[in-house]
Structure prediction request, 490 residues.
Amino acid sequence: MARLALNRDFSRFLEDEEFPHRVEVIFGNKSVICSGMVLAQQSSIIEGLIRDDCGVLMFEKMENIGTVEQKVECIKYMYGAPLAFSHQNIDVILKFASLYGISDLFHKAIQWIEKNLTARNLFAMSNISESLENQSHLLKLKKVIENFIIKNTDAVGAELAEKITHGDEIDSKLFVHIVAQNPNNGATLLKDWTSKSSENKLYVLDTVKDLDFVTLFPTQGEFSGFVAQLSEGLDSVDVMKKVLALQQEYFVKSAIKSQVQSQPAVVASGQEEQVEDTEENEEDDDGEEGEEEDDTSSIASSAKTGDGKPKSRQRGKNRKKRDKAEVWKATNESSKGPKVCNPNQPKKNTQPKNAQPPKNLNQPKNVHQPKNANMPKNVQQPKAAKQQKDVNSKCGNVAKRKVFVANIPSNATANDVKSPFMFCGTIVNVDVHSHKNIAFIEFNNEKSAATVLSAAKSGVKFTVSGQTVAVYEYTPGKASKPSAVQSSVV
Prediction:
């Protein structure tokens, strides 16, 4: 039971002839005659209303709040009568005290809430806080709610899950706050709530700064699955930009967190790792360079006597030769121009284009020379060309479901490449060519691939493991070398 400490100094009203001492308080069809001095002494807001309305007090802002009896109880409290708080009338008391500036009553109501707040009535209390016009009162009630959530994380999370299951209306701000304080099952709550409506998905995208997605989704697979669900049914370019920004922020924070967690171990074993890497590289060189077996014994013996080159320097040369050969091979495979000569292979004799082969030269079985040098325009195409044309027509639909991705990190895996594009649709295959820094992504329908290309044309930047990649339209046989038009799509 709460009782008001009355301020009984009414002397300021003695010589105030304009102040109405007799006030009629009206609640709907019921009216109560009160002393203007008593009411005005407890609230300056009520005093202003009494003076403006010439002795009539209607409490218009409370017209649709609570019952008449509950509001009359609040008036009696201002006269010094005790007031019993309960879950049924606490919302009326809070709003009455806040709207009309009765600080003593509001303070006592907050104290009662701190002692009687539960996970079940938490959501109703949150709705009340949003209706308070007094900013100071609003912050006090929100502080009580936040402290309760922190101290009762599991109970609040369980109640929230039940409300989501039943389809109850939940305040968005309160939901995000509960999830942010609930690392154990916050990810499950987030996925369940966003699956209910597009509005919930958009709200999460607009309030990503309030959630720690790295903590909620410890693995990239879990996060990618959530992003795919989050972007489902949201096709606008602005939404895709927000999704990609969320993904980029997640991968950056995840990498920083991993570095921080592993930093002590790296510092302690840094030199050992360098030694192991050196030994592994040397073993690779031994396996790939067959001629090195004979050189090893001589180099080892010369190293003992101080003559000859060190073993690591000789292997370094072998590694350079191998790198040159790989560069030559990759260049000739990916380009359409003339092949570059391999510096490690002897030059071959070449014949002029129009040179006739000798009569007795044994040609390969699969090579078919045309009978006439000058073939007429309407000549029938060779079988190989027909077969290639048939293959292109058959794989036309497959090509439209694919996109070509360039500039991926050399150590990127299929899952790394897949993650930034999952929100565009279901991915059925990812073909990664790490040595060329490219990949091919195949979706289950043409619309998903078109969505990726449309996003790229609109300025959306895709990142793989923190590195910005280029996205191009896939063309069979030409995807590894995009045209000038395709290159403008970034």
Residues 237-288 form the longest helix (52 residues).
